[in-house]
Amino acid sequence: MANRRPDPHRAAAPADAAPGPFRQPMRQGPRYDASAARRPILVFEDLYKSYRADQPVLRGCSLTIERGEFVFITGPSGSGKSTLLRLVHRTERSDSGRILFLGRDIARLTDDSVPALRRNIGYVFQDFKLVPNWTVFDNVAIALEVTGLPGRLVRTRVGEALERVGLAGRGDDKARVLSGGEQQRVAVARAIVGEPALILADEPTGNLDPQLAIDILGMFEDIHETGATVLFATHDRTLLDVRPRRVVVLDEGKATDVPNGLERQAMDDELEDELRASA
Amino acid sequence: MGSSDYGWKPRIGAWRAGRSDWRVHVLSVFSLAVAFVCLAASLLVVTNLAAVRDRWSRAGRATVYLREGATDSEVAALAKALEGTDGVKRVRHVSSQEARREVVSDESDAALASLPPSAFPASLEVGFSDDIEDVALGAIAVKLRALPAVESVETYQRWTERLSSLLTGGVTASLCLAVIVLAAVVSVIGSTMRLLLNRRRIEVEVLKLVGATNGFVRQPFVLEGATQGAAGATGALVLLGGLFLIVRGRFDHELANLLGVSPTFLPWPVAFGMVALGAILGATTALVSLRKMVAV
């Protein structure tokens, strides 16, 4: 059988070329774009958001997050940390500006496309957001069930996720009987079970004691090691100082980037001041 | 990514809430059953009142008063002709003496006892079958009045018309009550479902959080609402049916004597209609309550 697939090169041939059989000009189909893999995972461009007209939360916030980064987002209460994450998750909509997730503008997604976006984002909250009457397994499995994954695969992957967060064998326990730290581990398992490209953590250690908070941070770092991009919103300075990481400070509705962490920045500033004084 | 890639299994899986919170479900089904008992009871009253009205809309009998000079042969011929008429079940000749005996059972009432024999005319008591039409009965009465041996014919039409209109009023009032109860049932179902869904708001939040489509979120809740509504209505019918059987077992004879008909339970179409109504109301209120919660 003859190959009837249209040849795009012939379709684009000049008008004075040898006459061939008439064909409608073909539209170019999607092509593999090698540069797409190098695109930043998340770009905020001149973002504005206000809940009350006289009190804007974000005022021209611009920021770029590369793939595989671990970024702390910090700032005082009400500075817009949670708002920024909710805008990425499309729980909120921006007033103006763009948010590009893997090159696509989130604000322009139709309502039908929002579930697909959310399946590519793991979200962990301060208050865990678990269903207390469900078992640990059910709370994690729901993230896969919405995608229509077969039950056998769901069981396997939930088991793996629970093992990664240190809750292997606890699948049958009801979520309500778990401690705060364990509940947050379940929430983390739910966030990572679908292997999303991006993980948003909104004050995930806010309800935990300092040691547990550092444990949970370590867990996010382990997840980051596997290649996931993590946006970790917190106002807890002690967590920021555990390891030098990129920190984005939100204040007055704008983002200030501190690439090597606040402590390193402070040391650099101090050193610079000393050098200037000695000179 | 549309909804077509979701199988049935995950949807059943998402219904895990129905299994884990069974006490709440039992409680809400009970609330719905109580509301439906009121509706079913008012429909039961309507059904039985309508049956009583139908029974008493026709007296089913007539009295043919004979002239004083009617001969035995004329009376016998008339009785024979009546017995051969369609719709006539029985004919009984009551002589003047027998009529007097029936009215004046003892001589204690002097006024009755002193009445002349002409006050108690001989008659033919005619019993009709239940399915005879009023028109046919009227036509028979007209023909009988034209006969020379007949003085007058009493069909009790006015009395049955009055009773019938009274019972029709009762049926209408019961129907109005049923409509009011139905409105209350809708309100109770709506409130129950809203309370239930508010209690389970976190489930909806979690489902939306992990990327469930609106259809995926709604389907288990709507199915649950329909099931609860149907279960509530069925429970109400079972409860009312049990009570009905107890009452009928004890008072059937008395009620039949008093009303002229045996009380009956709701007809099957009404009972099935009520279960279907429960399912539809449950599903609808769940859908309406979810509309705001599910919004992206």
Key features of this structure:
heterodimer, A: alpha/beta, Rossmann fold, six-stranded mixed β-sheet, four-stranded antiparallel β-sheet, 9 helices, 10 strands, globular, disordered N terminus, B: 296 residues, alpha+beta, Alpha-Beta Plaits, 2 domains, rod-shaped
Describe this structure in words.
- The complex is a heterodimer of chains A (279) and B (296).
- Chain A is an alpha/beta fold.
- Chain A has a domain at 38-120 and 198-207 and 227-279: P-loop containing nucleotide triphosphate hydrolases (Rossmann fold, 3-Layer(aba) Sandwich), CATH 3.40.50.300.
- Helices cover 33% and strands 22% of the residues of chain A.
- Chain A is built from 9 helices and 10 strands.
- Chain A has a 6-stranded mixed β-sheet, with helices on both faces.
- In chain A, strand 1 (42-52) and strand 2 (55-65) form a beta hairpin.
- The longest helix of chain A has 17 residues, at 262-278.
- The model of chain A is unreliable at 1-21 (pLDDT under 50).
- In chain B, helix 3 packs parallel to helix 10.
- Chain B has 296 residues and is an alpha+beta fold.
- Chain B has 2 domains: 12-56 and 162-294, no CATH class; 61-155, Alpha-Beta Plaits.
- In chain B, 70% of the residues lie in helices and 8% in strands.
- The longest helix of chain B has 46 residues, at 214-259.
- Chain B has a 4-stranded antiparallel β-sheet with strand order 2-3-1-4.
- Classes of the chains: A alpha/beta (279), B alpha+beta (296).
- At the A-B interface, helix 3 and helix 4 of A face helix 1, helix 2 and helix 9 of B.
